[in-house]
Amino acid sequence: MILEMKVPSPGESITEVEIATWLVEEGDYVEKDQAIAEVDSDKATLELPAEASGTITFKAEEGDAVAVGAVVCLIDTSAEKPEGSETKEAKKDNAPKTEKVVSSSAVENKTYATGTASPAAKKILAEKGMDASSIHGTGKDGRVTKDDAVKAVPSMGQEVNVEGRGTSRSKMSMLRRKVAERLVEAKNTTAMLTTFNEVDMSPIFALRKEYKETFKEKFGVSLGFMSFFTLAIVRALKMYPAVNSMIDGKEMLSYDFCDISIAVSGPKGLMVPVMRNAEKLSFRGVEEEVKRLAIRARDGKITVDEMTGGTFTISNGGVFGSMLSTPIINPPQSAILGMHNIVERPVAIDGKVEIRPIMFVALSYDHRIIDGKESVGFLVAVKEALENPVELLMDNDAKKALEL
């Protein structure tokens, strides 16, 4: 019996995925529920498990965009499992670490595949007056795909081969392309402005110095800056509800909860998982949730649901050394806070110059829905809470707030 495996729906709004990597070889015997491929949607990377045991035949190649519900492979369930069958990854790991001798015919076949264009690609290249051999193919074995042909640009002159001036070309993942589209969308469809302020981090430094070891021993997570910023933002969102709103057609949709998106760097690029109901989280709750989401993003296990539906975003460019930036709004949200690195700076305190650890913070907001007064007031409220955390975030009892 031949089983047709179709692309399952990763989420409501997703209509297609991209075959990122086949984890098995054409003709391999696969076991039921074995991961046979990694597929990229515009929000996450997911594993595709085999629906039955049998011999696999590919119907799509790595790099192909495939519609949800389309057939990606066939599994011959009547085939018997051969002895010593291995997956693509296992074969790679078990391969002997010796130089491989390749026959001349194999080299010729590889070269032929590299310069070969699909029928659709040939037609497009012919219209552009281009030759397939001049295109770097991103398909299997270097084949020139339709997408390669569409993106190909005719050379404006003869290329000069100069040592040390090589170039390389790689296809952007579907996730990376979607991020790019959303960033352009945010710039083109919002009236985005950014307001800045600075925060004296001395009070938070003092609290962390006093309690971080005990906190980590008791809960197994560090007392970082994210919990202070998250709770300061929750307080400010309650004071300025327009910042926790978004435009829906001709209406303003406001939320009485705070689902805070946190921008993290994952193996496939920028990801923005969401802390649900941050207004109900304690310092411990925030730190545990940030750790959980960061690990899932790093391991490529984050789901579409975990990255959908935030009402406000925090981006921490400071971990990469950024001093100041203008973060881009994460649509359809109306605002994003940018954290930056902490630098010792001379500041005036009661008429005297002192050295304090200072962080510049930035709030980018959609001026269509948030006025300047609200945006500045919001950022000042965040600053006040961070500079006076015991009173404004801990109800004058740091140990109780930290559950110590």
Q: How would you characterize the overall build of this protein?
A:
By secondary structure, the protein is α+β, with helices and mostly antiparallel strands. The protein folds into three domains: 2-94, Beta Barrel (OB fold (Dihydrolipoamide Acetyltransferase, E2P)); 104-154, Dihydrolipoamide Transferase, CATH 4.10.320; 191-401, Chloramphenicol acetyltransferase-like domain (Chloramphenicol Acetyltransferase, 2-Layer Sandwich), CATH 3.30.559.10. Helices cover 30% and strands 25% of the residues. The chain is built from eleven helices and 18 strands. It has helices at 88-94, 104-114, 119-128, 146-151, 174-189, 202-219, 225-239, 283-298, 372-387, 389-392, 398-401; strands at 2-6, 16-22, 29-30, 35-40, 45-49, 54-58, 65-67, 71-76, 192-200, 245-248, 251-254, 260-266, 269-271, 274-275, 312-316, 335-339, 342-349, 352-366. Strands 9, 12, 13, 14, 15, 16, 17 and 18 form an eight-stranded mixed β-sheet that branches. The model is unreliable at 96-113 and 156-160 (pLDDT under 50).
Summarize the structure.
The chain has about 400 residues and is an alpha+beta fold. It is about 30% helix and about 25% strand. The chain has helices spanning about 90-95, 105-115, 120-130, 145-150, 175-190, 200-220, 225-240, 285-300, 370-385, 390, 400; strands at about 1-5, 15-20, 30, 35-40, 45-50, 55-60, 65, 70-75, 190-200, 245-250, 250-255, 260-265, 270, 275, 310-315, 335-340, 340-350, 350-365.
